[in-house]
Amino acid sequence: MDRRTDQLHIFFLPMMAPGHMIPLVDIARQFARRGAKATIITTPLNASKFSKAIQRDRELGSDISIRTTEFPCKEAGLPDGCENIASTTSTEMYLKFIMSLSLFQQPFEQFLEEDHPDCLVAAPQFSWAVDVAAKLGIPRLFFNGTGFFPLCAIHSLMEHKPHLKIESDTEEFIIPGLPDTIKMSRQQLPDHLKYETESIITEIVRNIMRAEMTSYGAIVNSFYELEPNYVTHRELEGRKAWHVGPVSLYNKDNEDKAQRGHGISYCEHQCLDWLNTKEPKSVIYICFGSMSVFSSAQLLEIAMALEASDQQFIWAVTQDTTNEEQTWMPERFEEKLKGRGLIIKGWAPQVLILDHEAIGGFVTHCGWNSLLEGVTAGVPMVTWPLSAEQFFNEKLPTEILKIGVPVGAQAWSYKTDSTVPINRENIQRAITKLMVGQEADEMRSRAAALGNLAKMAVEKGGSSDNSLGSLLEELRKRKSSSN
Ligand code: UDP
């Protein structure tokens, strides 16, 4: 049989944000390893973050490539080089960024018409892609970077609106219809969900929801054994979804792990050399994802808690760039804690660090990727949600899986619109509970068991491997019946 005519061709259109781009590039690479032709569409600056990995895959025989189109910074009213949501520094810039996604429609449509792929996997923020794909008769799957539990919880909230039936922002409500009793408060919801007053954001969210509802189905970075009741719940809602994760496990060697999301290896050897001197499960890794920026006051509280906690740590610090570094760091902090703590200023090779046997706990903002990467590494976590859907995500490790200790974050806030800092006593208390005592041991063994299930899921015959296989099979059948 002619491989060229039989081969599936899939377009991937990731949202330009690390938390979306990193897993979707992993997924595209895995599709190509399983015989499909994969084309990733993005802008030049974003492409530079993963072009080396794609080149390596091509040399190993994968049929994968990148097509770029310029980011219309000027038309969007954004500064040059602002091609990724992580580069936006205010809600206003964020909105301009999201609005500018419509400017991609024309070049993207041209790519689709030229190549006529068999399937399009796109972030729901490109809501116009549904219509474009439908016009050309191409099935569109959506990938929004999150898991089954948050998808179900958000869906229930939007349908039943329990948060609009309570008196105050701090009063708790139950999310109706879920397999577990999950309570939240209105202050933990994103602004656009809180009161449902009409705004540009509610309009954007409506378009995103429409794009989700009218898609052929979803690709989810999760695995069945992590959230079986929610995989089933989603099926019962009549929504097609394929779980193909944890996708971080598609990065097998240290080069892939170290470069993931950044394009170049950054402090890989410094981290590994340092971790190699430590006992197994003795180090806490602290990182709040790719978007969060803390105030100096909050950084100081974390530093003081770490100093007082007596624990060894690696801390990836991102700070408000308007603040000078030394304004928050306690006097002689790095010098005093040399050997006990390693501070990484900027991007950390997260998966490489988490996978090291010396890591025994993770302080995380509960971004879905980080959460899953922590689960995959088999480590318990201190949960510190900040924004996006992170307050939903937090419930999975703390209340359902029982591998998480909440730091006590109560209110949603975006970037530097920060609320009152979490104080050092609360941070220290959570860290100690994570690392010391019987409860810590029990959480650690539950986390280790989940870590093993995660690894089995992507192995041959595992739940995610099978799910990816059945998606490919379905797409191949569609292709052959339309030929
Ligand atoms: N990440 C990383 N190094 C960093 C910060 C983030 O490798 O210093 C990666 C992390 O491994 C994850 C992604 O960036 O894959 C962040 O996604 P997540 O959903 O956790 O959070 P977001 O950045 O979207 O808030």
Task: Provide tags for this entry.
single chain; 483 residues; alpha/beta; Rossmann fold; six-stranded parallel sheet; 15 strands; 45% helix; binds uridine-5'-diphosphate; transferase; UDP_glycos_trans_CS; glycosyltransferase
Per CATH, which architecture of the largest domain? 3-Layer(aba) Sandwich
Number of self-contained structural domains? 2
**How many beta-strand elements?**
15
What small molecules are bound in this structure? uridine-5'-diphosphate
Proportion in helices? 40-55%
Q: Strand-residue fraction?
A: 5-15%
Major sheet description: 7 strands, parallel
| pLDDT < 50 runs, ≥5 residues | none
* Structural class assignment: alpha/beta
Shape: globular
Topology:
Layout: H1 3-6, E1 9-13, H2 18-33, E2 37-42, H3 44-47, H4 51-59, E3 64-68, H5 73-76, H6 91-100, H7 105-115, E4 119-122, H8 128-135, E5 140-142, H9 148-160, E6 172-174, E7 183-185, H10 191-194, H11 200-213, E8 217-220, H12 228-236, E9 241-243, H13 254-259, H14 268-275, E10 283-287, H15 296-309, E11 312-317, H16 333-336, E12 341-345, H17 350-354, E13 359-364, H18 368-377, E14 381-383, H19 390-400, E15 404-406, H20 424-435, H21 438-458, H22 463-482
Parallel strand pairs: 1-2, 1-4, 2-3, 4-5, 5-8, 8-9, 10-11, 10-13, 11-12, 13-14, 14-15
Antiparallel strand pairs: 6-7
The chain binds uridine-5'-diphosphate (UDP).
